[in-house]
Amino acid sequence: MNLGIAGKWALVCGASKGLGYGCALALAREGTHIVIVARGAEALKSAADRLRSDAQVTPVTQIEAIAADITTVEGRAKVFAFRKDFDIVVTNAGGPPPGDFRDWDRDAWIKAVDANMLTPIELIKATVDGMAARGFGRIVNITSSAVKAPIDILGLSNGARSGLTGFVAGVSRTSKLASANVTINNLLPGAFDTDRLKATLEGGAKKSGKTVDEVRDLRIKTIPSLRFGTAEEFGATCAFLCSAHAGYITGQNVLIDGGAYPGTY
């Protein structure tokens, strides 16, 4: 399927590895020009090199890498100094650390909310009006399946991402945006084989007294697919939500978890 986004410009955050990289790869393979952002300059350069050398990414597709902390005012200013207008924005910031809520002070909560709620809101605010004026815009927020099925050791993430979910539910349904072909959706990953998952498994092992391998095996058994997801298949879903064919999908929480969520709705 031709997704109809060749030549568009996309901003993909947290794109040096994991799910963010998977999204950047899928979009680049569709001919979308990409600005990838992450804090680590070396890892980001490596990611950009891999994107440029991918057999399915054509030489005319522009790949730009900006090393910046997107959760800061300075980091966002650096990105928008390079390019102000984007047709596609994929928000993604590293999830807060797992742990016991009794150990988190105010600073830990503020940091989590700033990264996983307020930063996506700032990126939405900075880009949606330009998208509406041009008649096309796609924003995908990478959140977490924990928004629908909270995980006790991920309380910081549960709280901050739920706040973003509520905000998106309202702003995405404003007629000024929806009628202008601007969509905002959340993509909720379940267990994907990333560094983030490794940290969660290690936290679970520490809490339960089991080994990491034991916790990993137990987690896999809770997934009907009996495996963890891959960054490439996550990216493919993200690319579809960013496509010309997804203009009638907005304000949705798209769960991609191998069937792990047990609910009907």
UniProtKB/TrEMBL annotation:
User: InterPro entries in the record, alphabetically?
Assistant: NAD(P)-bd_dom_sf, SDR, SDR_fam
Q: Which domain of life is it from?
A: Bacteria
Regarding protein family, the annotation reads: Belongs to the short-chain dehydrogenases/reductases (SDR) family.
User: PANTHER family from the xrefs?
Assistant: 3-OXOACYL-(ACYL-CARRIER-PROTEIN) REDUCTASE (PTHR42879), NADPH-DEPENDENT REDUCTASE BACG (PTHR42879:SF6)
Q: What is this protein called?
A: SDR family oxidoreductase
